[in-house]
Specification:
heterodimer; A: mainly beta; globular; B: mainly beta; seven-stranded mixed beta sheet; about 0% helix
Chain lengths: ~120, ~110
């Protein structure tokens, strides 16, 4: 079964660092990109960025560039989203998704999400 | 940045009715790069349509997508109770993707 398994919920204080993970299984991890999507409470989906696990090439939304870092370790089929200094406004659900790039593009497999709560 | 504007924001319909959801882009989008997703409360989004008109695996044929250029449409021919959810369009850009703000489809 093709799946993305995300790490568990996190509760952090402002200024703390955090790394959440997304582990792929059931497919060739380096054949698809991984995208990260934020959903703030009660709001819509926001595309944050993506990574090609084969070479760790990344694209970022300008809204998130410089505030988060996307990385991947292809040896363990895992992608990461990390913050060096969290803000209360980072409180949200974060989804990873398998992203197919080719003649057509789509995000066809999604993780269940990681809830991040940042509060003093 | 390509902005996707979805309308209406909320659509109130009854089971059995036809739903038409719109996604308008601020500039032309390749049909190959336009997708639709469904999200139910407490769940991750699910891919419905890719390439503007191709159904994803396991998606019932009551869901269809159409459009080109700047105007795209998701149609649900006969609403089932499980179709009431939020729907998002999304476009791929070489350096940046964007989502529409979503259309909430609610039971009338």
């Amino acid at each position: 079964e093709v799946q993305l398994v995300q790490s568990g919920a996190e509760v952090k204080k402002p200024g703390e660092s955090l790394r959440i993970s997304c582990k792929g299984s059931g497919y060739s991890f380096t054949s698809y990109w991984i995208s990260w999507v934020r959903q703030m409470p009660g709001k819509g989906l926001e595309w944050m960025g993506r990574i090609d696990p084969s070479d760790s090439y990344t694209n970022y939304s300008p809204s998130f560039q410089g505030h988060v870092t996307i990385s991947a370790d292809k040896s363990i089929s895992t992608a990461y989203l990390q913050w060096s200094s969290l803000k209360a406004s980072d409180t949200a659900m974060y989804y990873c998704a398998r992203f197919a790039v080719g003649v057509v593009t789509y995000m066809d497999v999604w993780g269940k999400g990681t809830t991040v709560t940042v509060s003093s | 940045e390509i902005v996707l504007t979805q309308s209406p924001g909320t659509l109130s319909l009854s089971p059995g009715e036809r739903a038409t959801l719109s996604c308008r882009a601020s500039q032309s989008v390749s049909s190959s790069y336009l997708a639709w997703y469904q999200q139910k409360p407490g769940q991750a989004p699910r891919l419905l349509i890719y390439g503007a008109s191709s159904r994803a695996t396991g998606i019932p044929d009551r869901f269809s997508g159409s459009g080109s250029g700047t105007d795209f449409t998701l149609t649900i021919s006969r609403l089932e109770p499980e179709d009431f959810a939020v729907y998002y369009c999304q476009q791929y850009g070489s350096s940046r993707d964007t989502f529409g703000q979503g259309t909430k489809l609610e039971i009338k």
